[in-house]
Structures are given as C-alpha cells and as structure tokens.
Amino acid sequence: MEWDLPKLFNRPAQLTDASIDTERVARRISAYIYGNILVLAALIPVTKAQETVGIAIVVGAALSTFLAHIFAESVGQTLRLDRTLTRAERSGELRDGLPILTSAVVPSVILCTALIGWLEPRTAQLIAELVMITRIASISYVISRLRRERVTSGTHWAAFGLAVIATIIVVIKVFLTH
C-alpha cells in the first residue's frame, strides 16, 4: 500500500458516525495542549542524577494536572449550568480532560528505554522533549482537519508557531518554578 500524504492529511475529520460538538472538541484540544506543555515543563529540569525518578515526575505532573483540571472544569460547569452536574456530565468532563493524562504516556515510555539501558538517559530525555514539542505543533493539523480545511503552507507555519510559543511558555515556567 502506497502512502498518499496529502490524502492522509486531508481526509474527513469524522472517523465514526458519532459526532462530537465543537465545544467538547475545543475542550479536548485545550486539555491536549495544556497536558503536553506541562509534561514538557516537567521533563526539562530532570537531571542525570534523577533519571530513575524522571518517569515519576512526568506521570505525577500529568496526574496532578488532570485532577486539578477536572476539578476546576467541573466547578466551572456547575456554575455555567447553575445546577449540580449529572453523572453523564461528570463522565464527559473526565473524557474531555483525558488528553492531559495521556500526555505522559509517550515520554514515560521513552524514559523507560533509558531505565532498561536501551538509550542513554540524556538521549532519552532529549527525544522525549522533542516528541512533546512535535505533539504540540501537530495540533495545527488536527485543527485543519476538524475544520475540513486542506493542509497548506499556513498550516505548517502554524505548527511551527505553536512549537515556538509552547517552548517559550515552558522556558518561562521552568525558569520561574525550578
């Protein structure tokens, strides 16, 4: 099977018949970006002496951010709706925040390669950091796809801009908090 990259990037956004409203998609994209930025910020200050706890730091950052996000969004949604959330709405809040939690999976796996000796710790950390920046940049392609727009040079520039802005945010966070 031959890969047709333009066709791959420009295929329809819906992979199933079940549609998700724009507000819910926007929440998930926000959670995805937020989780990736905070996991990247957790990765950067991990030193060689901390290589064995790097995974715990990354998972801990994602888990604590996920819990704080779910709590804050649930309280906010309760206020917006002016009532207690139903079980289905609480479940929806959990699903919408899941991208924060899943942001830790790939870097944790990469860091595990150093733990078992497949990669040098610093190399694994650098690869994990680059993967996180790439994940943040890739959101411009997802947004284009959801809008049913073709991938253009503007999409690529947006990806580059997202990567730069996310990197600046992470540098500021690391500088101010570590």
The number of E-state strands comes to: 0
How much of the sequence lies in strands comes to under 5%
Strand count, sense and barrel status of the largest sheet are: none
Average pLDDT value? 85
Determine Rg (CA atoms, Å).
18 Å
Helix content: over 70%
Overall tally of structural domains? 1
**Number of alpha- plus pi-helical segments:** 8
Q: Helix- and strand-based class?
A: mainly alpha
Low-confidence stretches: 12-17
The secondary-structure element order is HHHHHHHH
> End-to-end distance, in Å?
48 Å
Query: What would you call the shape?
Result: globular
Give a brief description.
The protein is an all-alpha fold and 178 residues long. 74% of the residues lie in helices and 0% in strands.
Please give the structural blueprint.
Elements: H1 5-9, H2 22-43, H3 54-81, H4 87-102, H5 105-115, H6 121-137, H7 139-146, H8 153-177
Helix pairs in contact: 2-3, 2-4, 2-6, 2-8, 3-4, 3-5, 5-6, 6-8, 7-8
Task: Walk me through what this model shows.
With 178 residues, the chain is an all-alpha fold. The protein has one domain (22-177). The chain is built from eight helices and no strands. It has helices spanning 5-9, 22-43, 54-81, 87-102, 105-115, 121-137, 139-146, 153-177. The protein is globular and about 50 Å long. The termini are far apart. The model is unreliable at 12-17 (pLDDT under 50). The chain crosses the membrane at residues 29-47, 53-76, 97-118, 124-143, 155-176. Keywords: Membrane, Transmembrane, Transmembrane helix.
